[in-house]
Specification:
Largest sheet: 3 strands, parallel
Strand order of the largest sheet: 1-2-3
Radius of gyration: 11 Å
Structural class: alpha/beta
Helix content: 25-40%
Strand content: 15-25%
Number of helices: 2
Distance between the termini: 17 Å
Number of strands: 3
Protein backbone atom coordinates (compact mmCIF):
# COMPACT_ATOMS: atom_id res chain seq x y z
CA UNK A 1 0.00 0.00 0.00
CA UNK A 2 0.94 3.64 -0.34
CA UNK A 3 2.36 6.09 2.18
CA UNK A 4 -0.03 9.03 2.16
CA UNK A 5 0.61 12.56 3.45
CA UNK A 6 -2.39 14.22 5.09
CA UNK A 7 -2.03 17.94 5.75
CA UNK A 8 -4.17 19.11 8.65
CA UNK A 9 -4.54 15.50 9.75
CA UNK A 10 -4.87 16.29 13.46
CA UNK A 11 -8.10 18.24 12.95
CA UNK A 12 -11.63 16.86 12.96
CA UNK A 13 -11.95 16.00 9.27
CA UNK A 14 -8.30 15.15 8.77
CA UNK A 15 -8.21 12.69 11.66
CA UNK A 16 -11.22 10.84 10.24
CA UNK A 17 -9.46 10.65 6.88
CA UNK A 18 -6.37 9.29 8.63
CA UNK A 19 -8.46 6.60 10.33
CA UNK A 20 -10.04 5.58 7.01
CA UNK A 21 -6.66 5.38 5.27
CA UNK A 22 -5.18 3.28 8.08
CA UNK A 23 -8.22 1.01 7.88
CA UNK A 24 -7.42 0.44 4.20
CA UNK A 25 -3.88 -0.60 5.09
CA UNK A 26 -2.03 2.54 4.04
CA UNK A 27 0.89 4.08 5.92
CA UNK A 28 0.03 7.65 6.90
CA UNK A 29 2.17 10.70 7.58
CA UNK A 30 0.54 13.85 9.00
CA UNK A 31 1.78 17.43 8.66
CA UNK A 32 -0.07 19.77 11.02
CA UNK A 33 0.69 22.96 12.94
CA UNK A 34 -1.95 22.11 15.57
CA UNK A 35 -3.56 25.53 15.17
CA UNK A 36 -7.00 23.90 15.32
CA UNK A 37 -6.16 20.20 15.66
CA UNK A 38 -4.85 18.05 18.47
CA UNK A 39 -2.10 15.42 18.41
CA UNK A 40 -4.31 13.22 20.57
CA UNK A 41 -6.71 12.83 17.61
CA UNK A 42 -4.13 10.64 15.87
CA UNK A 43 -3.27 6.99 16.49
CA UNK A 44 0.27 6.32 17.69
CA UNK A 45 1.29 4.48 14.51
CA UNK A 46 0.90 7.66 12.44
CA UNK A 47 4.09 9.56 11.68
CA UNK A 48 3.45 13.11 12.88
CA UNK A 49 5.37 16.15 11.66
CA UNK A 50 4.71 19.45 13.41
CA UNK A 51 4.75 22.17 10.79
CA UNK A 52 2.95 24.35 8.30
CA UNK A 53 2.58 23.46 4.62
CA UNK A 54 3.06 27.17 3.80
CA UNK A 55 6.65 26.87 5.05
CA UNK A 56 8.85 25.29 2.39
CA UNK A 57 11.16 23.62 4.91
CA UNK A 58 8.24 21.91 6.64
CA UNK A 59 6.81 20.78 3.31
CA UNK A 60 10.15 19.34 2.20
CA UNK A 61 10.55 17.46 5.49
CA UNK A 62 7.13 15.88 5.08
CA UNK A 63 7.88 14.36 1.66
CA UNK A 64 11.34 12.96 2.32
Amino acid sequence: MACILVTGGAGFMGSHLVDALLGQGHAVRVLDDLSSGNRENLPREVEFIYGDCDQSGDSRASIR
